[in-house]
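Technical annex B. To support the medicinal chemistry partners, we prepared a structural model of the target in complex with pyridoxal-5'-phosphate, based solely on the information shown next.
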Amino acid sequence: METRAGGPGAFARFDLSRVPSPAFVVDEAAILRNLALLKDVGARGNARVLLALKAFSMWSLADVVGEYLDGVCASGLWEARLAREFYRGHLSTYSPAYKAGELPEILRLSDSVIFNTPAQITRFADLIAEARAAGETFDIGLRLNPEHSEAEVAKYDPCQFGSRLGFPVSQLRPEHLEGVDGLHLHALCEQGFEPLQRIWASLEPKIEGALTSLKWLNLGGGHHVTRADYDREGLGALLRGIGERHGIEVYIEPGEAIALDAGILVGEVLDTFENSLPIAITDISATCHMPDVIEAPYRPAMLGEADEGVTFRLGGPSCLAGDIIGDYRFAARPMPGTRIAFLDQAHYSMVKTTTFNGVPLPAIALWNSETDALRLVRQFDYPDFRDRLS
Ligand SMILES: Cc1ncc(COP(=O)(O)O)c(C=O)c1O
């Protein structure tokens, strides 16, 4: 995959030695810019915009998120708890399957609980009825698989052959919607407006009959709304049109778009040597700190990479032979202690870190590129590693 990083932005002038290494540095001003764009889309589209916590759950910014967006969406019990502890507004929870032991709390915490199949709704009908009898109020949703592929990479395509995500729209019958308040779909990954338009054009004729009896439609995430080339006017018009035509409330739940180009991961070179090519070991681990580099895979953009010079293969301090970040040019051989940074690491990196090999977790810092204020929000230590083991 290609990195979608738009460039260094204000990070071009951030002094990397101001934070411990490794550290995520999130630019609050960039987050605010993204949030303002998303709020504007919500207003244009008369739609509700939720932050997908799975992408970016830096809860020290929860109040700021709450000032701009309508709420958050969670992937299960723990994100739902995080949502209620720190975030405000609407909470929508979707999981590919629920456990009986967790569902009552999820029903209590959430405003809408979205199921992956009608069978799960039927299986848990008693728990749903019990929660309502106890005074809990929540909507029930069903995730549909629109069976229309637009994502560029199969691994990130919820409509791939044999997908487990969402109930295939071709199987939908009126009886599946008994007790259902809304429909959900999520079929995009880092995409512009046109793929959404095509998905909707293929899906709308199949579900317009069903929509008349429903309260809402949630168009999921994967909308790269805050990217410079995104057609935000088009999205606003589509969302408004859907709401007006079908008399329903419309939601989107982007994650990445909230934190796009809003954070870097700072690290340092620990050692260099030659083995067929110049190698540098860094305190940033692909597998522990930026697992999507290996999983996607993709090559993250490096801040200030030289146009000419010597190319080093950068890799992490873990034992994994494949703990390689990529090959990067330096104007001159980097010395141990040289600071480096990778762009666009605020989303899907901070939420995915591990302590494999006892590799320390990056600190988390909040910088405001407009005021230059810097706050070290969180540092991790040995107990954070120890206490996840037994
Ligand atoms: C159901 C659902 N909603 C929202 C999102 C957020 O997507 P993104 O961060 O790409 O906007 C995802 C991402 O996988 C998802 O699975």
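Notes passed to the chemistry partners:
The radius of gyration is 22 Å.
The mean pLDDT is 97.
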